[in-house]
Amino acid sequence: MKIRDRLLLAAERQFAEQGALDATLNQIRDAAGASVGALYHHFPDKAELYRQVWAHALADYQQHFWAAVGDSADAESGIRAGVLEHLRWVTENQYRAKVLTSARPPGVRESDSNKEFLRNAFRWWRTHASYGTVRDLDFDLLYALWLGPAQQYARLWLGGEIYTAPTEVAEQLADAAWQTLRAPRTDDHGDQP
Questions:
Q1: Which end of the chain, C or N, has fewer beta carbons within 10 A?
Q2: Is 89 exposed, middle or buried (0-12, 13-18, 19+ CB in 10 A)?
Q3: What is the b/e burial string over 103-140, where b = at least 16 CB atoms within 10 angstroms of the residue's CB?
């Protein structure tokens, strides 16, 4: 493994376990088995290292999320797959997930890869909304309703406040997301005889 990758992984763990403020560059460097010169060759300061760790975690999450949603056969399977993948990823990538629940560093939201992910996700949603399968919602509200409960559950689990793994409740949260986001049917309003 290249030294840069070792530094990123060591930093990911230190930031997840101690937080960005308390983790030190010396701890990260020691954990990676890197020299001071190697650390500063790749990352000019702790803020840039944190930004790179955060961006790397986000890209990994988005790749897995989009693979699950983008390959779905229909809106229901896509919504469910998004929740299931979110909770699977959190369970299997706890350090990265903890990093992503920390403060987002400047510049990550504006990155080309993040913009592309958001465009693809919104395009996927608008396509299904245009068919009348799902509710026509603004993206911010859509995001909160789709993944908000799963994210809150994951945060509590990552923080040790609840003990049942996210994958154990994933089906229920996926069901809730679908029920919330699907377009109302005629029989939902009691309009049928």
A1: C
A2: buried
A3: eebeebeeeeebeebeeebeebbeebbeeebbbeeeee
Give the pLDDT means over successive 10-residue stretches in the chain (193 positions). Answer: 96 96 96 96 96 96 97 96 98 98 90 92 95 94 97 97 98 98 77 45
Tell me, what amino acid is at 16? A
CA distance 63 to 65: 6
Can you tell me which residue has the tokens 């679908």?
178
Q: What is the pTM of this model?
A: 0.92
Contact assessment for residue 50 and residue 108, using Cβ atoms and an 8 Å cutoff: no
- Does residue 107 come out as left (phi exceeding 0), alpha (psi in the -120 to 50 range) or beta? left
